[in-house]
What we know:
Layout: H1 4-11, E1 29-31, E2 45-51, H2 56-69, E3 76-82, H3 87-101, H4 105-117, H5 131-138, H6 145-152, H7 155-170, E4 178-181, E5 185-187, H8 192-208
Parallel strand pairs: 2-3
Antiparallel strand pairs: 1-5, 2-4, 4-5
Amino acid sequence: xxxxxxxxxxxxxxxxxxxxxxxxxxxxxxxxxxxxxxxxxxxxxxxxxxxxxxxxxxxxxxxxxxxxxxxxxxxxxxxxxxxxxxxxxxxxxxxxxxxxxxxxxxxxxxxxxxxxxxxxxxxxxxxxxxxxxxxxxxxxxxxxxxxxxxxxxxxxxxxxxxxxxxxxxxxxxxxxxxxxxxxxxxxxxxxxxxxxxxxxxxxxxxxxx
Length: 209
């Protein structure tokens, strides 16, 4: 049986007979001193994606990342960490955690990206923040706009956003999208495909111990 690393390299369509370079610490990834995941999972390698719905680069990355995550082995657990690099990011960090609290984060994830960047039915970068408009959008997915707005403004969601931001700063996450493996390795890479190749290697590295 092919290893996970070998399978994903095929998925990333490397040239025939090409041997991928082994990722190098300090160049292809950074080691995070005393790093651990924001929310560790016993016996699992946690794969964290730092993202924000309003981020154009995250929207471009999403199709590559989503396809890659379908190849993850059972011992790798995906977690999204909404980043708040600017005031425009904050409302969508709250929206993600509100959706998570109400049990609709997974089924709305792609739709929120699409509504911001393709159909422009949600506020994009440079638009005026509009929590009510965001809450009405989520109401199309089985939750009331009132409940969603209350969740966005709740103490619990605010605490999660602050905790994520503190973790992001400790991990020295420079931008979105960024992948961190098990809280210990921050992935770099010149292209999206390269990021995923490096992330694949690091998942196997952590799993192997």
